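lol ok so funny story. i was supposed to be doing the assay writeup but got distracted and ended up predicting the structure for this chain instead. priorities right. anyway since i did it might as well share w the group, maybe its usefull for someone
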Amino acid sequence: MAAAFDFAFDPWDPAFLADPYPAYAELRARGRVHYYEPTNQWLVPHHADVSALLRDRRLGRTYQHRFTHEEFGRTPPPGEHEPFHTLNDHGMLDLEPPDHTRIRRLVSKAFTPRTVERLKPYVRALADDLTSALVAAGGGDLLKDVAEPLPVAVIAEMLGIPESDRAPLRPWSADICGMYELNPSEETAAKAVRASIEFSGYLRELIAARRKEPGDDLISGLIEAHDEGDRLTEQEMISTAVLLLNAGHEATVNSTVNGWYALFRNEPQLAALRADHSLVPTAVEELMRYDTPLQLFERWVLDDIELAGTTIPRGAEIALLFGSANHDPGVFSDPARLDLTRKDNPHISFSAGIHYCIGAPLARLELAASMGALLEKAPTLRLAAEPDRKPNFVIRGLEGLSVAV
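and the output, tada:
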């Protein structure tokens, strides 16, 4: 353990948030694991270690399947935060086997490649419509006009949420996701609790309606999903729906605006993409690697592990630095260079192991559809003003992206 943390890593510094990648390079150069006192976490910056630890069953997204808070040396969350934790802790992203295995198996029955394939015409048509409206207006905010409404509408369509009910979805999601930042404030917690109560209440009513009149949607599918007598509880259905919405659009929204901002700052690459639209699939992967929408993913140490000669004890928390791993020169040639033709691109933006993103095929479809529509309908799309960056570290994104056509 370092006696004092003197690296450039500072997730609350605006200069770091603007460009964390030089600090990551310093972390990688100075070792494989670093204790960071401000968040009481062990930072892991190398691709090989991050990839291996995502698959290591000595680590977990939760510890409550094996230990109480007290047994694990942790303080239980405040009682007033309970609605958030009830919602969060019953989603498969924050569960471990056997509950994770059961829920993911049941959800997978309703969330199949066929579902994604069936959505292709809807996604492409929506991307075309949103882009056409942006072009007709002479430009606008790429985030609010294209990047945000596309994945929100798609996941709401999948879940069977009526159009008239969709306005609160993005604000609810943003408030809940605030709790995933490092050391969230009480104000952030209060917003997350309120959103958890309101979102859960809405979904409880929707589930009751679908029980009476099932439809061809994911909520109905979750109600019917079963295997050898196992079913999802109502709370698991609610938590799964919220997880699918949050994960299903937060990453896509931020990948879209981060990606286009990167393209605007790399004109030769943007010109190559405009000249050859067949680059879209590799461009999507490279842009997710280049400026990763989820910079950090946390794991609890369930049993002592050793990393690079350092023992990390049970009860500790590890911060797996996705953004750093995706810029590791041991894996990516010239990682600071945006290369839309990069073929060997094992980025870990969708995680790995049992918690690999179940919605990755849908995210790729949405990103490719919006990029293709913008290239075709707005071939001279350009940056109209420098954007402000959100003051977040874990979920990396912009406040908006003003563009002209």
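The chain is about 50% helix and 10% strand. The CA atoms of residues 30 and 140 lie 43 Å apart.
back to the writeup now i swear
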